[in-house]
Amino acid sequence: MALFAVYLVCALVGAWIAFWRAPEWPRYNLLLAIAAVPQIGHVLGIRISEMFVISVVAMTLWCLCNYRIAGVPMVAVGAAFNALAMTWHGGAMPVRADILAELGYHFDPGVLVEGSKDVVVHHSPLWLLSDWIVISIGTFILIISPGDILVVGGVVMWLLFSRTAALERESSMLACHSASHAETRKNLIPGHSTRPALTRLALLAAADPALAERLLHDPFDVANAHPHYHVTLDAHDRATLAAIRARARTVGEFLGELAAEVDGL
How many other β-carbons are positioned within 10 Å of the β-carbon of residue 132? Predict the structure, then answer.
């Protein structure tokens, strides 16, 4: 029950962080569920050796499908360490009898510890990968492996950093867009303009993206039929707008060309 309590607390904390951080969600999580089934079976006392092979294959495929996500490579290394130790001992995680004895538990070698995935051993050539790290808080005792630490570390990394690159790209794009928009407005500050009608039209377009979009498609109609500010364009202004429209492919290009014309560039 203590192990289930740890799993439950970790799941709740992870869900809270995921809700707050919205990390990148891995793909093919059914594979992860398949990999977890034998581990849950061990805790419940159901041990089927063939299921361990299925668990390893499912976990390997899941890691390969999601290796680009932050934290997954660390989870893969931790799972590999655990799988290596468990494979050496028939699908159960070795735990040394002397470590259990120090905690007051006495088991004969070869005994499967009830309520866990562990098998008691005197010694193991892979004991460094086994369950030997003791976490003791009051009456609560948990024995974990280095692989478990790596798996938990990978999950934490996934929760905290899996969306960082994407968010930076989005922030960079927004910053560039804002800087471009600000630069366009800066170039349209009224002064001693020799093209007052175009200046007014450009200011209106810079302040209203919808108007700028309409100007790109039909500058003359929009200029004459603006609901609040009627702009009277002379022949020179109309020729300029026609030339800009012919060159510009996007609203940003249209506004940039218009700003350049207003500034006499």
Answer: 17
Residue owning tokens 């218009």: 258
Residue in the block written with tokens 């041990």: 47
pTM score > 0.85 for this model? no
Q: Rounded to whole angstroms, how far apart are CA atoms 158 and 20?
A: 13
- What would the pLDDT profile of 219-261 be if each residue is shown by its tens digit? 666 555 455 556 677 778 788 888 887 787 787 887 888 788 7
